[in-house]
Structure of DUF2513 domain-containing protein:
Amino acid sequence: MKRDMELVIRILKVIEEYYTSRSISLSLEDEGYGDMIVQYHLRIMAEAGLIVIDDVPTLASGQYYINGMTWLGHDFLDSARNEKVLIAAKEKAESRGVDFKSLPIDVIKELLTEGIKNLLECNEIKR
């Protein structure tokens, strides 16, 4: 199974919006992501230190017990939140023949951080 960084970002957004420190409904089938894919991504996101989950990530179809997002998870999501920055990072990767979805998280964080810095510098120049 391939890692999908767009799914990682989507999961972090759902956790941030609906987190209640208990089971959370995370059915993303209408977005093309089945339960197995979501479970896999929750596990690797926990391994990467983005989220904290129980040992058994699935309670029922589309239900997961998520203990929360870590500081690293919040930082990563904050970097990916600006749609202009995210699109620019994807375009930069694609212009070099690289699939954004499969980039290592550290590379994506660098691209997003660079995009945020560029956005801030542009705003400073306009003032």
About this structure: The two ends are 47 Å apart (CA to CA). The CA atoms of residues 8 and 46 lie 11 Å apart. The first strand starts at residue 23 and ends at 25.
